[in-house]
Design brief:
Strand order of the largest sheet: 8-16-9-12-13-14-15
Number of strands: 20
CATH class of the largest domain: Alpha Beta
Low-confidence stretches: 626-640
CATH superfamily of the largest domain: FAD/NAD(P)-binding domain
Radius of gyration: 26 Å
Number of helices: 17
CATH topology of the largest domain: FAD/NAD(P)-binding domain
Strand content: 15-25%
């Protein structure tokens, strides 16, 4: 159908959670400068509440907490954000809660419940719509998008689950967030085994949506994974079943069971939980970051290389940057624990390679106590090389490890750990901006960047609030949680009809009648439960990102392939679609936090602004018959 000069342009955003809301905010903010003279209609499609979406919806257990403090969560760009569009500041979660009568217990350092976050996100959504320009309308469709049709030069038809007529759109933005997935072959084998032997099996799922009623009181349940998903499931299977905690005189918690809890046997590759969140602030001045690992400088340093090696070229600079943040805080905040002034140490440190003997000598001479030196290997794999006569000795060791972690991350004497954490965030934010990553072999991008580095970042920086770690320790001391060790393995016993598990470091094993995959589902375009993405893939209108090397190595990532420069969806023939964008963890552009930290030039704001300006620029080109390339050149300019 031909579009009248008076008809509105239409942008459909599939997904109205935090990412979709962020894109909407940037579209409305940029509309004053870039909006065409015709009216603009923005249609959001999501079966879950707008603003919060599925993960953050209010209808979930009040026991589910956020994993960041309220002061470190915002949906509004501020003066630090380098974008082309206008800055429209707004309150962080803690600032909003201070004026919201229903959230009296939320302070700057509070880990708010997801129900409180849901109310904040709904308020943000309502606020940005209320401030929309007069010629822009916003409408929400509480349903699911199932299919998109339309060529590169025609308007798009977005079919909805419960409608006979599609939405007709000039542009479509996919912002669905995390996706459910059909269990893969290995998981299906475990599920089939459970069916044959009347056992219980839970594949990777979102904790708030998982049916945990099948797990019985006192039942031995294996859990693979010790990250955020495990903590949520642990809470729902213990406190969520009526258990409670009592504060002891020595500051520890004691768990009082309800009698309805299963017995949880947990393990992972490391065999220990993620490091708990740090509860204190820096005692010295913040380190000037980035110092040794800024994307432009790293790219310039490696510009002449045909191939880049992660461990030889990138990790030494990354480690040096993280350690710089650590030692900056140690020297400036705790001068009594070092032998020289920061200025002298920093000058020598800057001229040395991270992995050389001179650097080790400098650190050992300047930092007398071994516990004050940053040891990445010991930090990453604390159980490596340890052997225990049996499971009981392993339990005592892991409980001691957790207790030491709680103490260290709540004691300001160890504020250098916070310096390392802030430098870790800086490194993580620079990684997506590196052009030299394209020179890494595909095998290394899979195993080192998306594998080891992503895992280490989450382990060190994305752990649970300290109170949750205290609860885990109390559950372990009560015998409700037991640890399987590092490199946990699971096997099936057809003869006995049980799952069996064990780990490195102890000969003991455990048999169980239930198994939980305590991890979020991996993105997989081919098997995801999202009909829209599956239909695009099967028609060839979307492609999975595949990484390959000349030596025959091929890795199917499961991620929707989009252009890293402008987030346009790439078809199987390699052509980007000018009218379709996608952004989020289901795409190959995935390195960003769910929520931005204020005053950090957050990458998510820059991505949203870039996408919004490209969408509006395309519409301007359509209206004025201006060659699209000219408009795109005028509207782009994402600053690193």
């Amino acid at each position: 159908m031909r579009k009248s000069q008076n008809d509105p342009f239409v942008v459909v955003i599939v997904g109205a959670g935090p990412r979709g809301t962020g894109v909407l905010e940037r579209l409305l903010a940029n509309a004053a400068e870039l909006s065409p003279s015709r009216p603009l209609s923005i249609e959001l499609v999501d079966p879950y509440p707008p603003g919060a979406g599925r993960v953050w919806r209010e209808q979930q257990s009040p026991l589910m907490w956020m994993n960041a403090t309220a002061e470190n969560v915002t949906m509004f760009p501020d003066e630090t954000v380098t974008i082309e569009g206008p800055i429209r500041p707004g309150p962080s979660l803690s600032e909003w809660a201070a004026t919201e009568g229903s959230c009296p217990d939320v302070s700057c350092t509070t880990f708010a419940t997801r129900q409180v976050q849901s109310r904040y996100l709904r308020w943000v959504f309502d606020k940005i719509i209320a401030e929309a320009p007069a010629n822009v309308s916003v409408r929400v469709h509480a349903t699911r998008a199932t299919q998109i049709e339309g060529g590169t030069r025609t308007r798009q038809r977005v079919w909805l689950e419960d409608r006979d007529e599609p939405l007709t759109a000039d542009m479509v933005v996919l912002a669905m967030g995390h996706l459910d997935a059909v269990p893969g072959k290995d998981h299906q084998l475990l599920a089939d085994f459970a069916d044959r032997h009347d056992l219980r099996y839970l594949p990777c799922a979102y904790s708030a949506d998982a049916d945990l009623s099948m797990f019985e009181a006192g039942e031995d349940v294996l859990m693979r994974g010790m990250g955020a998903a495990f903590i949520d499931l642990m809470v729902l299977l213990t406190e969520g079943r009526g258990g409670r905690y009592e504060e002891q005189e020595d500051g520890r918690l004691r768990y009082v069971p309800s009698g309805r809890e299963p017995r949880l046997h947990v393990g992972s590759r490391r065999g220990v939980p993620y490091r708990s969140k740090i509860s204190y602030r820096l005692m010295g001045d913040p380190a000037p970051l980035p110092r040794f690992f800024s994307a432009p400088e790293v790219d310039a340093r490696l510009a002449g290389r045909d191939r880049v090696d992660f461990w030889a070229d990138l990790w030494p600079l990354m480690a040096k940057e993280i350690a710089y943040g650590y030692y900056h805080e140690l020297f400036t905040a705790h001068p009594g624990r070092v032998t020289t002034r920061w200025e002298e140490f920093a000058a020598a440190y800057a001229g040395l390679d991270w992995d050389g003997e001179p650097m080790r000598a400098l650190i050992e001479a300047s930092v007398p106590a071994e516990e004050d030196r940053l040891d990445f290997a010991a930090l990453d794999r604390p159980l490596r090389g340890l052997d225990f006569p049996g499971s009981d000795e392993l339990q005592r060791h892991v409980r001691d490890h957790i207790r030491a972690d709680i103490d260290r991350r709540s004691d300001r004497r160890y504020s250098a750990d916070l310096g390392a954490f802030l430098a870790l965030l800086s490194v993580y934010g620079q990684m997506p901006l590196l052009t030299c990553l394209a020179k890494l072999p595909a095998r290394s991008r899979v195993a080192d960047v998306n594998g080891w580095w992503q895992s280490f970042f989450e382990y060190f920086g994305s752990g649970s609030p300290g109170e949750r770690t205290r609860q885990l320790l109390a559950l372990a001391e009560a015998g409700v949680v037991r640890f399987a060790g590092a490199d946990m393995w699971v096997e099936i016993d057809e003869e006995k009809g049980v799952y069996r598990a064990g780990g490195a470091g102890t000969p003991d094993t455990v048999e169980a009648s239930a198994l939980i995959e305590a991890r979020l589902p991996d993105a997989d375009l081919r098997t995801c439960a999202e009909p829209l993405l599956r239909s695009l893939y099967h028609r060839g209108d979307a492609a999975e990102q595949v990484l390959a090397d000349d030596d025959g190595f091929v890795h199917r990532t499961g991620l929707l392939h989009v252009s890293p420069e402008d987030f346009r969806v790439i078809a199987r023939n390699g052509t980007p679609h000018p009218r379709r964008f996608a952004l989020g963890p289901f795409t190959n552009v995935r390195q960003f936090a769910t929520f931005a930290r204020p005053r950090t030039n957050a990458l998510s704001f820059r991505q949203n602004d870039r996408l919004a300006r490209d969408v509006l620029g395309f519409l301007l080109a359509q209206e004025h018959a201006t060659p699209r390339g000219e408009v795109a050149a005028q509207t782009r300019g994402l600053a690193a």
